[in-house]
Amino acid sequence: MTPTTTSQQELYRFLEDRFACAQACTECARACALRASLMDPGEVDGQEGVRRHAIMCAEVCDATCRVLSEQNCQDEAGIRIQLEWCRTVCVECAHAFDGHSGAEEAAAVCRACARACTDFIGILY
């Protein structure tokens, strides 16, 4: 295998992993926005806190997807910080969804996004 081929394969893998992470962020943003829309903003039984987590997660995931979709507009450190923020918010949101009837799928999507962010952070180091 020539150095050029290896370099091209690494570039393809990087781009595929970046796309996979962006796609996971998009799916998470969509799931969280949907979950938030199903909750009554004034409910008392802990729903308001879960709704706020869902809204924040949707916003952070959307922003992360935009960062990952840009063509080299940010440095690696900036991307890493965004990914770490997204991962943290997704895990917190998944925990908020735990125990709420009907939120199991959204929690799983949040955890999948957190894993995708973790995996992509590993490539950046």
Topology at a glance:
Blueprint: H1 3-37, H2 47-69, H3 76-97, H4 104-124
Helix pairs in contact: 1-2, 1-4, 2-3, 3-4
Commentary on this structure:
Helices cover 81% and strands 0% of the residues. The chain is built from 4 helices and no strands. Helix 1 (3-37) runs antiparallel to helix 2 (47-69) and helix 1 runs antiparallel to helix 4 (104-124). The longest helix is centred in the first third of the chain and has 35 residues, at 3-37.
Tell me the major beta sheet.
Answer: none
Mean pLDDT: 88
Could you say which overall geometry the principal axes of the C-alpha atoms support?
A: elongated
Estimated share of beta-strand residues? under 5%
What's this, in brief?
With 125 residues, the protein is mainly α. The protein has helices at residues 3-37, 47-69, 76-97, 104-124. It has 4 helices and no strands.
Can you tag this structure with a few keywords?
125 residues; mainly alpha; 4 helices; elongated
